[in-house]
């Protein structure tokens, strides 16, 4: 069966009471159902403790939106992987285009974070994606393959049981304009093919999410694409009823 991970990236949203409401609604929505997909929520750091406590013993897994690669020390403002591990974080999003754009994160930095996350037994969700200008210039795959080369440098085939890649075209994030089915299908086929060849992996063993304006309305079409293993969802993950709808859609696809 294909692997499906539905992850909510809450970004810089939710005060503690809002996080509590949101995750409590998600927990009640999935109660007593036997889900085959993985469900992950990635709240801001300040809500990790609240959410971690509430999801204890539920089907929901915890993710963080960033980390630093050093385990501790004089790095003012940073959060280490052991700190995240303490709250039972399992996934860490790295290389998100918002961090690349607003905080000048490079592929080299993302690679250091990926290695540190894997070494500590957690799972990186490594985001890659082209800008609109790059797509219009016909450079999409040159950009994606270059990001993959640098972000995955020195990693081994065995690491892929713990790696999630998220294809997130920059122009589709938060814009309400999702990539078309054809664009997603093409990108996912190419990315899996590239990684499969580079690391000598079976393409079905590579977990590749799509992200960028996923909603309840377009998720059936997107998640049905063969090489799409779930979604990284921003805006639509902040409304429990929409997030739950997407989870149900993913489940129907897996069970059909
Ligand atoms: P979006 O964000 O769903 O709001 O487009 C996706 C993401 O940034 O991961």
Task: Reconstruct the topology from this structure.
Elements: E1 5-9, H1 16-30, E2 38-42, H2 48-55, E3 60-64, H3 81-86, E4 89-94, H4 97-102, H5 107-119, E5 123-128, H6 132-136, H7 140-151, E6 164-167, H8 181-199, E7 207-211, H9 219-223, E8 230-233, H10 240-255
Parallel strand pairs: 1-2, 1-8, 2-3, 3-4, 4-5, 5-6, 6-7, 7-8
Bound molecules: 2-phosphoglycolic acid.
2-phosphoglycolic acid is lined by residues 9, 168, 173-174, 211-214, 232-236.
What are its keywords?
single chain; 256 residues; alpha/beta; TIM Barrel; 8-stranded parallel beta barrel; 10 helices; 16% strand; globular; binds 2-phosphoglycolic acid
Describe the structure.
There is one protein chain. With 256 residues, the chain is α/β, with parallel strands linked by helices. The protein has a single domain, classed as TIM Barrel. 41% of the residues lie in helices and 16% in strands. It contains ten helices and eight strands. An eight-stranded parallel barrel has the order 1-2-3-4-5-6-7-8, surrounded by five helices. Strand 2, helix 2 and strand 3 form a beta-alpha-beta unit. Helix 1 runs parallel beside helix 10. The chain is globular and about 45 Å long. Bound molecules: 2-phosphoglycolic acid.
């Amino acid at each position: 069966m294909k692997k499906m991970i539905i992850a909510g990236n809450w970004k810089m949203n939710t005060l503690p009471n809002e996080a509590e409401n949101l995750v409590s609604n998600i927990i009640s929505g999935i109660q007593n159902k036997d889900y085959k997909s993985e469900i992950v929520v990635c709240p801001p750091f300040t809500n990790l403790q609240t959410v971690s406590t509430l999801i204890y013993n539920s089907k929901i897994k915890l993710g963080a939106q960033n980390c630093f690669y050093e385990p501790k020390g004089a790095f003012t403002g940073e959060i280490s992987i052991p700190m995240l591990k303490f709250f039972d974080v399992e996934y860490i999003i790295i290389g998100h285009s918002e961090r690349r754009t607003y905080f000048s994160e490079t592929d080299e930095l993302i690679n250091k974070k990926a290695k540190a996350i894997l070494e500590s037994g957690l799972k990186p969700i490594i985001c890659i994606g082209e800008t609109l200008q790059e797509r219009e210039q016909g450079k999409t795959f040159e950009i994606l393959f270059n990001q993959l080369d640098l972000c995955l440098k020195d990693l081994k085939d065995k690491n892929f049981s713990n790696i999630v890649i998220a294809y997130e075209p920059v122009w589709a994030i938060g814009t309400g304009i999702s990539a078309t089915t054809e664009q997603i299908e093409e990108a996912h086929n190419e990315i899996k093919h590239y990684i499969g060849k580079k690391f000598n992996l079976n393409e079905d063993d590579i977990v590749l999410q799509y992200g960028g304006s996923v909603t309840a309305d377009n998720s059936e079409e997107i998640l049905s694409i063969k090489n799409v293993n779930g979604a990284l969802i921003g805006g639509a993950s902040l409304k429990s009823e929409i997030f739950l709808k997407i989870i149900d859609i993913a489940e129907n696809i897996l069970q059909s």
